[in-house]
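Course assignment 3, question 2. Fill in each field.
Student: A.L.
Task: Predict the tertiary structure for the chain below.
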Amino acid sequence: MPSLAETGVREGSSQLSAPRLRPGTAERAGLDPEELACLVREFRRLTDGDRPWAAGAVLVAGRGPVIAVEEAAGWAVRYCAYDEERDAAVELPRVEWVPTTARTPFDLASLTKLFTSVAAVQQLERGTLGIDARVGAYLPGFTAAAEYGITVRHLLTHTSGLRPELPLYDCPDDHARLVLLRAEKPVTTPGGAYGYSDLNMLLLQQVLERITRRPLDVLVRDGITRPLGMADTGYGPCPGAAATEDQRRPWGKADRGMLRGVVHDENAWALGGVAGHAGLFSTAADLAVFCRTLLAGGSYGTARILGPDYVELLLSPPGLGFALDQRSFMGALAGHGAAGHTGFTGTSLVLDPSTDTFLVLLANTVHPRRRPADHGPRAAAATRLARAVRGA
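Answer field:
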């Protein structure tokens, strides 16, 4: 087993320990109970009806070390298929529906990027990775990245100029996928405009695995989830997870049928389930610990996964892996300098250092079929939390 120094985790002392999360009330969290009551009522409606926003969902919100809201609604498994001709979901017999609970794991989709980013910043803190170092210095075989001078900072800030994704799922084997990734050239000048891309985290994964000589799932486990006690967070398979999609063409990129407990993202699936951009499963409770750790400057209890200066680097504009000031899903929290991210399967989290608040909303909005993202419920929930702070 690697030492704490090797993983980037430090032994805590009584002076460095940070309070652990504990259940409490709105008042104990310094939040307005009426606003939180509205938040809960609105959340419960998200899974109602024949065509709900999501089949199932879990919400956790808090301030400081206090969890003020922990709610589950709807169904982790409700459908067996999607009927394209009728444009309708096909429900399982009612006795086979699986209720969502507060401990239901969800496919995090792009929330995985946050863990890859933290793993990278841990290497920055150790001095084994340079933020302005060229990717080609670590991966000389990635000729396009080397030729165009793509840096680690470009990957972490989504300014590499790489397109959003590649059809790795159509490649016949791992060698062909690697060849495609190595040759991929940016479509805009690196260091220029923001352009969200899964390829950034796939390249970052390659860098991290090269410099540490360890696979990404081990880096995430030993450097983040294990020291924080996030026992329900890890790469799949995860048999008890909420179901996602009846994945098949033409709306999907592969024909895989109804998915549960295996990664939804087609490229992550093609890569064996462990990828820098997708593949993790987790619970809302575990993600609350992740949020609390960052809000506390990188410490949780006696575990420390990052120093405060490096957490500040992670969360300060333009953000390293985190989306900052995105009003589309952060609601009124965006004006407070909050940071967060969303995942294609229906997952999201927001943390606001200025008010020491966090909100985790996990849902399987793609069950039984993907559809255009509707950030309205996420923004509404974040706005309720912001109002709860102001009204407290």
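Instructor remarks: The radius of gyration is 20 Å. Residues 1-15 have pLDDT under 50 and may be disordered.
Grade: pending
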